[in-house]
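Input record, target 12 of the design panel.
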């Protein structure tokens, strides 16, 4: 036997065994990875084993088990200015999956609205969500926080919350409503005319009032023309006369502060 040939055959035998070992090791590694790797495919039993205890047994939807956010979340109020206590809505949109979610609306870290499903654990409507609530009672500028709550990954069982801020909105101070004053022209008077057929009469509007402050002006009108002040003195001739008093409040706008006039009769003897 040629020594060199036998040596070559020996070396070739060693190379063949190495190749077999490498192939065998690669096969075992792949098999081990297949056993170790987590299962991510959809399973008909996953919902019933991982989710149904909280979310109910119907519907058994896969979308509810998947991560919904926090991708492209957006929260917008239906207006930017409200009166105290006015009804408002907030539209919450975005997410990266369809299907039901739990959505919560916060103001200053206090929950004011939510969208939920069975047992308040989820299963509510999917995006977009419309929250309905009331504007704060105190005037000021506010911002809501809209939160998505659900699985933080696609594996199920790990829940978390992701909040985003809405646009800023304003609650305006209520516009005060002016209450008109009440005019009181005093009681009827009977006076005696002088030799010239006239008499001096002192009018009295001190009974007039305004619940929001002092009376700004008193205006009298009658056969004598016009007079101003709380208690002006006017001259009247013989006969029965109607005297009218108009009062205006301190608001500075007579069309707001005017009150119906009260009439008094002053017969002269």
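The sequence produced for target 12 reads:
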């Amino acid at each position: 036997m040629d020594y060199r040939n036998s040596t070559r055959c020996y070396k070739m035998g060693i190379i063949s065994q190495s190749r077999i070992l490498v192939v065998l090791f690669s096969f075992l590694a792949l098999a081990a990875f297949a056993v170790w790797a987590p299962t991510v495919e959809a399973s008909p039993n996953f919902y019933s084993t991982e989710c149904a205890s909280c979310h109910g047994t119907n519907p058994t939807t896969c979308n509810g088990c998947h991560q919904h956010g926090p991708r492209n979340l957006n929260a917008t109020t239906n207006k930017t200015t409200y009166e105290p206590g006015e009804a408002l809505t907030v539209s919450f949109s975005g997410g990266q999956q369809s299907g039901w979610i739990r959505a919560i609306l916060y103001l200053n870290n206090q929950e004011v609205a939510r969208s939920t499903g069975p047992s308040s654990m989820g299963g509510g409507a999917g995006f977009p969500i419309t929250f309905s609530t009331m504007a704060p009672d105190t005037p000021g500028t506010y911002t809501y926080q809209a939160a998505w709550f659900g699985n933080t990954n696609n594996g199920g069982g790990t829940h978390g919350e992701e909040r985003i801020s809405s646009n800023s909105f304003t609650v305006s101070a209520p516009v005060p409503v002016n209450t008109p004053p009440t005019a009181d022209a005093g009681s009827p008077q009977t006076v005696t005319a002088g030799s010239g057929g006239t008499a001096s009469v002192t009018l009295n509007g001190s009974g007039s009032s305004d619940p929001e402050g002092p009376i700004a002006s008193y205006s009298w009108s009658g056969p004598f023309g016009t007079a101003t002040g709380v208690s002006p003195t006017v001259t009247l001739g013989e006969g029965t006369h109607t005297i009218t008093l108009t009062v205006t409040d301190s608001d500075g706008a007579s069309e707001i502060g005017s009150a119906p006039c009260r009439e008094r009769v002053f017969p002269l003897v």
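The chain is about 15% helix and 35% strand.
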